[in-house]
Design a protein that fits this description.
Layout: E1 8-11, E2 17-19, H1 20-29, H2 31-41, E3 48-57, H3 64-69, E4 74-80, H4 85-97, E5 104-108, E6 111-114, E7 125-128, E8 142-147, E9 153-165, E10 173-179, E11 195-197, H5 198-202, E12 209-210, H6 212-217, E13 224-226
Parallel strand pairs: 6-7
Antiparallel strand pairs: 1-2, 1-10, 3-4, 3-9, 4-10, 5-6, 5-8, 8-9, 11-12, 11-13
The structure holds zinc ion (ZN) (4 copies).
One zinc ion binds near residues 197, 199, 200, 218 and 223.
């Protein structure tokens, strides 16, 4: 079987496109990024620790669509050490996940950092996600994150590296790169699909991917959902937006 081409994405600093693996290498040496860092480091004030995070989708294979869809999604973020897990949670919700205000959490070692927690009484140790990440993050760490404990979206956060200096952005997090919108074809005509039918998708019935025209003609018109640049496409009631919060 032919190897599936890796999803590509654009570097926010130089605008060039790279594959998923290529982007990890590129961001370490991107001249435009080095220039932005050098400029930021000239500002006055105290140096802080800033983390390079790679965020990867790990949605369970709920349907054949999700199995095929999930490897397309990745982000590279730069995050201030004095920002909190709560800031990262808000960011992931905005760009990828938020549908109906479900609970979420980060698993770091034996501790689960979440919104509603019982300290030490449950089956695992739970704490507030209102904690600075420089108290927790170390390069090399892999952190599982979950959004919605029903139809769960699973995400892996890798701490690829850290630098001491000044952040480029005034926000807690900066988007350095993300995958391009993946393309899927209408299963009726082969044109680009823009909607899916969640009734047919979860019933393992084809066709479930439609262009605008064939979505209009489909019998389950109240079960149609948009296809978005998000691994939560087709899960729960996800309608986007698939945009970063800042
Ligand atoms: Zn670049
Ligand atoms: Zn939901
Ligand atoms: Zn069509
Ligand atoms: Zn349908």
């Amino acid at each position: 079987m032919a190897r599936k081409p890796q999803s590509r994405g654009k570097c926010a600093y130089c605008g060039k496109e790279y594959s998923k693996a290529g982007m990890t290498r590129h961001l370490k040496t991107c001249a435009a990024r080095q220039k932005a860092i050098a400029k930021a480091n000239k500002r006055r004030g105290r140096d802080i620790t800033i983390y390079h995070l790679q965020v990867l989708d790990a949605t369970p294979p709920y349907t054949p669509f999700h199995q095929m869809w999930s490897p397309n999604f990745w982000l590279h973020l730069e995050m201030k050490g004095n920002a909190t897990l709560y800031d990262l949670d808000q960011y992931l919700r905005a760009i990828w996940l938020e549908c109906c205000g479900h609970l979420s959490g980060f698993e770091i070692g034996p501790v689960f950092y979440t919104q509603i927690f019982d300290d030490g009484m449950g089956w695992r140790e739970e704490r507030s996600m209102n904690v600075r990440v420089d108290k927790l993050f170390r390069p090399g760490m892999t952190i599982p994150y979950q959004y919605d404990f029903g139809t769960t979206s699973e995400v892996i956060i890798k701490v690829l590296g850290e630098r001491r200096g000044k952040p480029i952005t005034s926000h807690p997090i900066e988007l350095m790169a993300r995958n391009n919108m993946p393309q899927v074809a209408c299963q009726v005509c082969g044109e680009p699909a823009t909607e899916l039918c969640s009734e047919c998708l979860w019933g393992y019935e084809e066709p479930y991917l439609f262009c605008e025209k064939h979505a209009e003609e489909h019998e389950h018109d109240d079960m149609l959902m948009p296809i978005l640049n998000s691994p939560r496409t087709g899960l729960c009631a996800y309608l986007g937006p698939d945009e970063p919060p800042y």
